Write a sequence for this structure.
């Protein structure tokens, strides 16, 4: 029985060594691909270091002046029309200022008190007002 135990230990050690050696190239390849993409991302960021980092800017600072990708839809009552700005009170009681322009699609002319639904960009420009 002692002889069998002495034979099992070298077999187990060699099996673990073979598995470890077999896995090493796969792990190295995975690690290399992760490193290379990370390194190339850093290199790309450094190559265009003159481009400022994008940060979510509050609406009061960044305002759109033309149609763009829709961000959300606002619905409520039109409270004030002042030049190219509409103030809408949504159904929760929040007041939202929308900017309208030549690019805004109007279904028909709106006046204070009308119920409106507007598709707006992240910067607050109304793509459409219904």
């Amino acid at each position: 029985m002692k002889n069998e135990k002495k034979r099992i230990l070298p077999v187990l050690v060699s099996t673990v060594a073979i598995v470890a050696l077999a896995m090493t190239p796969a792990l190295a390849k995975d690690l290399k691909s992760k490193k290379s993409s990370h390194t190339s991302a850093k290199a790309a960021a450094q190559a265009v270091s003159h481009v400022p980092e994008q940060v979510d800017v509050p609406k009061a600072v960044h305002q759109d002046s033309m149609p763009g990708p829709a961000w959300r839809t606002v619905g409520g009552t039109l409270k004030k029309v002042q030049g190219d700005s509409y103030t809408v009170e949504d159904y929760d009681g929040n007041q939202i200022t929308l900017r309208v322009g030549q690019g805004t699609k109007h279904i028909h002319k709106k006046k204070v008190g009308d119920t409106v639904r507007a598709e707006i960009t992240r910067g607050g420009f109304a793509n459409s007002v219904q």
About this structure: Helices lie at 2-47.
